[in-house]
Known about the structure:
The complex is a heterodimer of chains A (324) and B (336). Chain A is an alpha/beta fold.
Amino acid sequence: MSEPLLKVRDLRTWFYTDQGIAKAVDGVSFDIVPGETLGIVGESGCGKTVTSLSILGLLPQPPAKIEEGSSIRFADEELIELSERRMRALRGNEISMIFQEPMSSLNPVYSVGNQISEALRLHRGMNRKEARAETVRLLYEVGIPEPDRRVDEYPHQLSGGMRQRVMIAMALSCEPKLLIADEPTTALDVTIQAQILELLADLRARHGMAVLLITHDLGVVAEVCDRVVVMYAGQVVETGEVHEIFAEPKHPYTKGLLASLPSVDNPGQRLTSIPGTVPNPTMWPAGCRFQDRCAESAPECGTPQALVEIGHVGRSARCWRTQA
Amino acid sequence: MIDRSGPPLLRVRDLKKYFPVRSSTFGRTVGQVKAVDGVSFDLWPGETLGLVGESGCGKSTTGRAVMRLLEPTAGEVYFDGQDVGALDRKALRVLRRRAQFVFQDPYGSLNPRMSVGAMLEEALKVHGLGGLSRRDRAVELLERVGLRSEHIDRYPHEFSGGQRQRLGIARALSVEPEFLILDEPVSALDVSVQAQVINLLEDLQRELGLTYLFIAHDLALVEHVSDRVAVMYLGRIVEVAEAEDLYKNPKHPYTRALLSAVPRADPVGREKRERIVLKGDVPSPSAPPPGCAFHTRCPHPLKDAICETVLPVMEGSERGHLAACHHQNCDRETRG
């Protein structure tokens, strides 16, 4: 395995609110090596988006605070201690991000060409003319038809799938080493989702960038990821190769998630559901955070569970049963 | 198995709903969005018909036009033999007691200033039901949908998404309907909670003999809950079949593309999986393509001039499996 591009260690991002301290991300660690696609999967409120925003330093502090002892290393730099100036140079240049809702991430009063060339002029020092030519090329690369005409259109003139392509073109403009994609296809229809996932896989193969894919959709994870991190209640509860996670889930939460999917192969069978809901982040249960919803809970679950390696490096689970 | 020998509970024939497009300066009508353009289907008592399609295909508009939440532009709807279009306001209200809606956004469809009890009792009051025991009935409803009696004095914001959707279902059930139109009832929920709500809907259907029109974009989910499935594209149904037939042997090229595009939660063999990725976007329903509306994106190898000029009709044979494609039968030899 090559040297990790991104190394997150014991990341704790807490929010200091009137209702108490919300430990949205509470001790998360994972690595991404160059060129791989790592999926972070979990339900709403598990901390997956806060993790990605922490990496990019995009959280307002306060109320957020990255706690002492957390570390995010990208290449050779510690991102947590970076100056805002250096961070801005990194963002968009070496690490790019695409979000779920492309309409709200694009500026409605500038043409899409204008917004992409801005990044090119800022980060790659191009002049107006060069930037425009490069923008047209990028739009072509992400599969936008008639790029020389589309370059002058405004976000509202484009469909949802086209807008997401524009966001991807923008994210790619500086050839980043790492692309963070936060629910990139959640707002799109399935046929358009298939187009975007194919585009991302294609671009990854061509440019060799690493992708951190954040999603709640296990189907998307199964289609595109190499490795998977499953999060629950601000913690990593299981990690592994994508085949291992789907074939042999170890943590009861992962098992529950997979079982609650309606499958094309067993229609008509009753769905297995996980009872209850994700607890409030200001009041995580003591001990295993999943115990109240777990089908297999026992007295041992009352003590905090550690993420322990099973079998080989990169395969781990946070449940005492898997360690027995 | 659903008994389809008797009369259907709901019969929809050539239903249309057009929305006018007005010019911004003089407000003149300059065009029409044909959101629903000739939809026909039957729904038998106790059955679940799934209505699937991508955004803008007209599935929600169909659901609303059926019960005249949106006044249809043309077409006929018969509910239990009654011509819904001919009913006056009073008769329509009586009918609506028998046919209730559950919407996607459980928060947006609950009044934030009304306690759960007040909300449930109001529905009973409007329809003249329950009398003095309305509160008892409200408690019974809450327990029926898996909530607790002490929830009765709480307000919608105090509930989680899944619980709110249970409230939406309790309110729909309060007037003892026979028919529920479920419009993306679990799309806003996390998977683990989604399964809870789907199981609840299935239990209720079995116990109360309800009939469902289940509108959703999630194909795996629709297959799971439906007896039959209708696929919509640009305001029309392009294929309808028993759920199993549709998924095992889709006939319309759009259905095939849609099914192949669904990400499967199984990484084994993903590289070899045959996937039909459609080019481009859905055309605007204000100017749908002539002939078969799907011809602009259709990957069928036999696509020809007929597809671009002649509107295909729904045809087929075995077990009521119908599709609107000129080339649906010359397909087995050409596929792959």
